[in-house]
């Protein structure tokens, strides 16, 4: 017994006129054919560029911090030298203005210069020692940083809020009783999916 729609197919083939396919909504709303003036036409992707590892990134950060500390030291030394030059000029002017107490003024200025010279290296040395101590302090970007001693916070597997409670049956963490009511109505497969999203591969019975 021949199929019922055989005559219709034969009639459509005999006519030879195929109806054009209508564009879909995605094709009508697509903007891929529009020009993109915000893109640089001369841009070429660097094929030889390699992704930096964590060790390289941390090393570059340490080098950048070391350079910043050296620049700060240079600025402090320049400021100290300017202060020394200013104090020496003030001492010379005061010595030239005083006629009767010129000898005493020179002695005072010499004593002041000696004090500044004796304290300046110590101050610079103390700053350098402080900078050296800062280099040894571990930070969050250094691998040698110890783990945090604060207790780890737990978050709800459903809402993402803080979860002080844990369901003993499924092992899911929940925020309040409303979320617990939702967990009780879940199936086993859904609970497993939430646990796998958190990275826990426990068996839910």
Automatic annotation (TrEMBL):
Annotated source species: Tetrapyrgos nigripes
Protein name: Vps72/YL1 C-terminal domain-containing protein
Vps72/YL1 C-terminal domain boundaries: 154-183
GO CC field: Ino80 complex
Bias (Polar residues): 16-27
Chain segments carrying region Disordered: 1-133
Presence of keyword Transferase: no
UniProt keyword annotation of Transcription present: yes
Biased composition (Basic and acidic residues): 60-82
Subcellular location(s) per record: Nucleus
InterPro entries linked: INO80C/Ies6, Vps72/YL1_C
Superkingdom as given in the UniProt entry: Eukaryota
Record GO biological process: chromatin remodeling
Residue stretches of biased makeup (Low complexity): 84-102
A Pfam family the protein falls into: YL1_C
Keywords, ordered alphabetically: Nucleus, Transcription, Transcription regulation
